[in-house]
Amino acid sequence: MKLTDAKLQFIASWGAFGTHWGINRTMAQIHALLLVSAEPLNQDNIMEQLNISRGNVNMNIRELIDWALVERVIVPGERKEYFNAEKDIWKVARLIIKERKKRELDPMLKLLEQLKNVDGDKKDKQVKQFVDTVSGIKRFGEQADKMLDVMVKADENWFVGSLMKFFK
Amino acid sequence: MKLTDAKLQFIASWGAFGTHWGINRTMAQIHALLLVSAEPLNQDNIMEQLNISRGNVNMNIRELIDWALVERVIVPGERKEYFNAEKDIWKVARLIIKERKKRELDPMLKLLEQLKNVDGDKKDKQVKQFVDTVSGIKRFGEQADKMLDVMVKADENWFVGSLMKFFK
DNA sequence: CCATACTTTCAATATATTTTGAAAATTCAG
DNA sequence: CTGAATTTTCAAAATATATTGAAAGTATGG
Predict the structure, then answer these.
(1) Per-residue pLDDT reduced to its tens digit, A122-135
(2) Is A7 in CB contact (< 8 Å) with chain B?
(3) Shortest CB distance from A120 goes to which of B3, B130, B166?
(4) How confident is the model over B131-159, as pLDDT tens digits?
(5) Per-residue DSSP letters for B67-122?
(6) Which positions of chain B have pLDDT values less than 70?
(7) Coil/strand/helix, residue A75
(8) Which nucleotide's C1' sits nearest to the alpha carbon of B57?
(9) What is the pLDDT, as a whole number, of residue A100?
(10) How many CB atoms lie within 10 A of CB B17?
């Protein structure tokens, strides 16, 4: 397969993949494009390669920068801004875990903690089921939280070396 | 907080949570409702508690059954079908991992394997970057795949006992 | 059987999300 | 400063996704 086609297919798949993970298709596509580009790109490059509008590029690039997946690059002698994606996939994974943990898991755990204290007799079947479910999810979430924390702090060598040996 | 309000809040949050994970809001809400219900519910129960149409309940319940998160229950002497959610949250997590792995990770790995074989000189900067990125993602995906496989097969005791000790 | 209770389907509709593009704001070389 | 290049914003339009509800399909007690 030719490089150009391979790139296009990678971008399309990464975009579709992203939509299953709460990430907007275009944001994932821009990310994919930058991941496979050897050089930083500017807004116009991205616009033409993905056939999307300037505003769209701008908004989604900002989002990628928020997530720290992409950085602005100054090219000497150039007026335009260029963008470069973090290429170390382990770092990418850690950045995503960190961000989603903060945005989703942490608030959920906070809420579950409150919901555990629902009024009513714990002997009541309905109350019991509610408390049991909520507590169960909370315990699970806390384990996941711990595990993800370790991952976020770990580096690839530690991770592959120790954890993956553990996982045979 | 009163049980009724607590339930509503749990359902709303679980629904919002689901949307970040590629699951449709209503499907997640129905799941949440069934998770905190001590008894199986029928379509009419769900319709009135969530204020949604019969067709909507029907479609999303089917989806939940596809994922094996919910099962049909026959209540003796009743004509209607009842639905019951798997309450063991570890089992729930394993079912979700299994399904998403099959639907998303496995196809992605297959594609990456193909894309690695792009034409062109590996000395070319563009080609090299593409192959490096794709290979890196593939290696990462394979590690994740192995790890998730172990999780899917594991039971809670093994998981908490061994893995979580590992994660301090 | 068949009348009725119940479930499923799906085209039409409503809602939510994404994208556009032109105007406003900003930056910077001269 | 000035004005051209560049970036940012955001209301309107386009697109995608979810929901409804009535009609068609199915199952069951009598």
Answers:
(1) 999 999 999 999 99
(2) yes
(3) B3
(4) 999 999 999 999 999 989 988 887 767 66
(5) TTSEEEEPPTT--S-EEEE---HHHHHHHHHHHHIIIIIHHHHHHHHHHTT--S-T
(6) 156, 158-168
(7) coil
(8) D19
(9) 93
(10) 19
Residue B130 in contact with partner chain A when CB distance is under 8 A = yes
Q: Which two tokens stand for residue B144?
A: 């994740």
Residue B96, phi then psi, degrees to nearest 5: -70, -45
Mean pLDDT of A134-151: 93
- Nearest-angstrom CA–CA distance, B37 and B159: 27
SS3 string of B39-77?
Answer: CCEEHHHHHHHHCCCHHHHHHHHHHHHHCCCEEEECCCC
Helices then strands, each counted (H, E), chain B: 9, 3
In the block, residue with structure tokens 């616009």: A47
Residue A102: pLDDT over 70: yes
The distance (Å) linking the CA of B145 with the C1' of D19 is 36
Distance CA A7, CA A29 (A): 11
Question: Which amino acid, residue A165?
Answer: K
Q: What's the DSSP call for residue A87?
A: -
**CA–CA separation, B88 and A6 (whole Å):** 43
Neighbours of B6 (CB within 10 A): 22
In single-letter form, the type of residue at position B34 comes to: L
Asked if B132 reaches chain A (Cβ–Cβ under 8 Å), the answer is: yes
A59 touches strand D (CB under 7 A): yes
| DSSP one-letter string for A64-125 | HHHTTSEEEEPPTT--S-EEEE---HHHHHHHHHHHHIIIIIHHHHHHHHHHTT-SS-TTSH
Contact B147/A126, CB-based, under 8 Å? no
